[in-house]
Amino acid sequence: MFGADATVYVNGLIVTTLSISNKDFINSNYEFHQDPNNPLVAVTNAGTINARGYVGLLTSAVKNTGTITVNLGIIVLVSGEAATLDFNEDGLINFVVTEATTGKVMDRESNVLRDLIYNTGLLRVNGWQVQLSVARGVSDVARYVVSQEEARGKCNH
User: Fold this and answer.
1) Is residue 137 within 8 Å of residue 115, measured between CB atoms?
2) What are the pLDDT digits (tens) for 93-151?
3) Cβ atoms 76, 112 nearer than 8 A
4) Could you tell me if 110 and 92 are in contact, meaning their C-beta atoms sit under 8 angstroms apart?
5) Can you give the residue range of the structural domain that contains 40?
6) In the chain, what is the greatest distance between 2 CA atoms, to the nearest angstrom?
7) Residue 73: CA atoms inside 13 Å, Cβ hemisphere, count?
8) pLDDT value at 69 more than 80
9) Does 30 reside within a domain?
10) Strand, helix or coil at 81?
């Protein structure tokens, strides 16, 4: 969780609640999976994240009420219980969700989240793109997958 007073300045940032084996990490095989012994939890940003190249939030659910700004890069908000991360030749990132979120996801206060990706914050990209990615199964038809409550997302090209 990035609280309301949090301010982050980085070149690139990947935040996840999913697990990766040491062997896969060392071999640059970035395959992330939900640990069945851990609960499904969300990554939450209420603060300000500034990056030069990329910001990737990969977890069972993502909640952004803060500001994420990337210059000449990409913002990727990804919901799933398994995903693969690729670093592109241009220094950007790409996630492929291989397993959908199927269980109940809790926030920090143990509330069940209805949305897998919830954004009322500001997503600002100067130069590339914003991606919101969710793998969805048939059982998810009653669930909101992506909730963009205000038109605050902004892309400058």
Assistant:
1) no
2) 888 888 988 888 887 788 888 888 888 898 988 876 676 656 554 344 444 455 555 54
3) no
4) no
5) 7-150
6) 43
7) 24
8) yes
9) yes
10) coil
CA distances to 22, 24, 30 from 27, in Å: 9, 5, 8
In a domain, 1, yes or no: no
Which own/partner pairs from 98-102 qualify as long-range (CB within 8 Å, at least 24 positions apart)?
98/31, 98/135, 99/33, 99/34, 99/135, 100/134, 100/135, 100/136, 100/137, 100/140, 101/40, 101/60, 101/61, 101/134, 101/135, 102/137, 102/139
Q: Is the residue at 155 inside a domain?
A: no
Of 25, 65, 21, 24, which is closest to residue 42 (Cα–Cα)? Answer: 65
User: Using an 8 Å Cβ cutoff, are 55 and 8 in contact?
Assistant: no
**DSSP annotation of 106:** B
Residue type, 103: G
Q: E-assigned strands of the chain?
A: 7-16, 31-33, 42-45, 48-59, 61-64, 67-71, 74-79, 82-87, 93-99, 115-119, 122-126, 129-134, 144-148, 154-156
Q: How many domains does the chain have?
A: 1
Burial level of 111, CB count in 10 A (0-12/13-18/19+)? exposed
Give the residue among 20, 39, 26, 157 at the shortest CA–CA distance from 95: 20
Is 157 a domain residue? no
